Amino acid sequence: MNADYEAKPRSWLFGPMAGLAAGALGLLVLLSVFLIQRFDRAATEREEHMVENGLAVVIAELNRVVATQVEWDGAVANLDNRFDPNWADFNIGNYLHVFHGFSHAYVLGPDDRVVYASTHGERAALTDYIPFRAAAESLLPEVRAQERARPKPGKRPGKNNIVIPSIQANRIALIGGQPYMVSATLVQPDFGEHLPKQARAPIVIAAKPIDHAMLKAFADRYLLEDLVVRSPEAVASADGQLLLANRAGIPIAALTWTPRRPGTMLLVQLAAPLFLLLALLAALAWRVIQRGSAIATDLIASEARAKHAAFHDSLTRLPNRAYLFERLGQSLRRVEGPETALAVLCVDLDRFKEVNDTLGHNAGDALLEAMAERLRQACSEATCVARLGGDEFVVLLETSDEAAALVLGRRIIRAVSERVVSEYGKIEVACSIGLAFIEEPGVEPSEALRWADVALYRSKESGGRRVSRFSPDMDQALRHRLQLEVELREAIGTDQFGMVYQPHFDRRRNLKGYEALLRWNHPTRGAISPSVFVPLAEDSGLILALGEQVLRQVFEETRDWRGVTVAVNVSAVQLRARGFAAQVMRIMAAAGANPRGYEIEVTETALLGDDQETVNNIDALKRMGFAIALDDFGTGFSSLNVLQRFSVDKIKIDCSFVAALGAGRGSEALIEAIVNLARGLDMVVVAEGVETEAQWDHLVKAGCRQFQGHLLGRPQPVSTINRALPDQRRASAA
């Protein structure tokens, strides 16, 4: 009861106020609409007046243009005293068309008959005048009347010119459905050097179409929008308009445009405040509730967007590492035994780094997007497909069937291996997969991912394109690799690393040079193959320090060698390092070596792509005097462009081709092709891995001129070479 009692005074008070406010607002709206319409109409009328005056200005300007060409002694001499059609071509037809847009020009003789016609700047048949005859003849009486009323042209006493006002007439005419501005101008002298022969002078008729080009120039000049020419019947009442009439005052066309409407613009600006005021007066409470609901909705949506951004990768739109760990934790908590097992698949793209290095990071991003979409489609039954980072993805599959997880893994490999066609060309990659099948409860997410990552490493170690299931012995192998990395880091800078040098010879088995080869003599493990520790150094970032040690040792050990070249292998990582060439120069200067006695050996992959640091380093090394040799030629992405772009001096045929000699004509043909290519580019060819006399014979027959392999000489320490080198040089000289 008390609430009803308090509600009645509020309604008595606010009811009339709301009604009064609504009525006042309605009156204000009506008044605003009335004033807005008046403002718009006044603005349109001002624009119409402006356009009318503007058109008159344009016509006057065109009249002056024509008068300039026909009111001078040259025009009298070539159009009146004698008629020169070539002069008319240049000064009337062509000039008025090219410089001022007149499409038609005609010259009428003293008898008002056409003696010259020009259409679009080119001389035309006199019959082209027929469509314009009616328009021109309507102007002739006015021109002839002015001609008769003027004083006879002649020089003024004591002056060198005469003063004769222009005699012109013009009109708007509709010819062939196209409106034209048509002018008639009497030919008159200026200095009086040539005077008309007769009482009647020739008349020049010029016509300019009111077409798109003319309208665009006019609209730009007077800031008009949507200026077009229409028939008078097609004019809308809302358009700004100017009727174009003939000399009889009959409208033949109309210029229309979208007028400025300042009143309407004001209404648009005032509409929101007026509507807001009305809404506040009519339903303030409802508005507050609605606004509160909108704010809550925005907050919920904003929270959802923020959460999505926090848990998804911006490039591939897949769940990211944070989301993966959350979902992985949930799935692992559901594992209670073999019936509720979880398969964790780590997917890593093979050769992704080559795509980034050769085609650029944009191509790499495009490839990742394509791979993410393929994973979505191939893993429809998966619990989660996430991007862990870089080119590594993780797939979670809740299943009690390990075979189903292996089938999914092989399906992923097939999907990833399909060629990607993009704006960067056709890209082919594959993937390696590590599978951890978890059947026991209590496994932590980080441990589950580590197991899958260990299995992934085994897949990559085995050549890729396969699924490897985690087993405890794999963990031991990974721990061994990590321990080896620690020992590699400790070994750099010590005497565990040493250099050996393998010779290469020419066809007469004369010594030509050596290739410097790095060896790691581990104190407990013994000799460790470069195929093991070099990739490990590249993956761990130790290759720069190790490469610096190699350069320093090679230059110091071989600086006194004469008459032979020494090849030093350089990693692609070193070539991409800023200032690598400067580092080489400092080490060589400290050792006192001559760069012209050395070759820098690089792989084909190192020279591919658009990496500017690689280009800068190669150019600097070439300027210092180093030769550039391309190692393992034919096994990567060989291209003629690479050979020419980097001015490669030597290519080394990979030992795999040499080993295949005699097994078929394929290898022989390939080696012959490489030799012919090198010969055409003036490059030296070295065949690597020559092990037998049969291989030697095949290579000599194929045209190869330098050779390296155990048949000719095994790698030797520097002490052995220093003792034998003088004897070898003497034997070669003999």
From TrEMBL:
<keyword id="KW-1133">Transmembrane helix</keyword>
<dbReference type="InterPro" id="IPR007892">
    <property type="entry name" value="CHASE4"/>
</dbReference>
<feature type="domain" description="EAL">
    <location>
        <begin position="481"/>
        <end position="729"/>
    </location>
</feature>
<dbReference type="InterPro" id="IPR052155">
    <property type="entry name" value="Biofilm_reg_signaling"/>
</dbReference>
<feature type="transmembrane region" description="Helical">
    <location>
        <begin position="12"/>
        <end position="36"/>
    </location>
</feature>
<dbReference type="InterPro" id="IPR043128">
    <property type="entry name" value="Rev_trsase/Diguanyl_cyclase"/>
</dbReference>
<dbReference type="InterPro" id="IPR029787">
    <property type="entry name" value="Nucleotide_cyclase"/>
</dbReference>
<dbReference type="InterPro" id="IPR035919">
    <property type="entry name" value="EAL_sf"/>
</dbReference>
<protein>
    <submittedName>
        <fullName>Bifunctional diguanylate cyclase/phosphodiesterase</fullName>
    </submittedName>
</protein>
<dbReference type="InterPro" id="IPR001633">
    <property type="entry name" value="EAL_dom"/>
</dbReference>
<keyword id="KW-0472">Membrane</keyword>
<keyword id="KW-0812">Transmembrane</keyword>
<feature type="domain" description="GGDEF">
    <location>
        <begin position="340"/>
        <end position="472"/>
    </location>
</feature>
<dbReference type="Pfam" id="PF00990">
    <property type="entry name" value="GGDEF"/>
</dbReference>
<dbReference type="Pfam" id="PF00563">
    <property type="entry name" value="EAL"/>
</dbReference>
<feature type="transmembrane region" description="Helical">
    <location>
        <begin position="266"/>
        <end position="286"/>
    </location>
</feature>
<dbReference type="Pfam" id="PF05228">
    <property type="entry name" value="CHASE4"/>
</dbReference>
<dbReference type="InterPro" id="IPR000160">
    <property type="entry name" value="GGDEF_dom"/>
</dbReference>
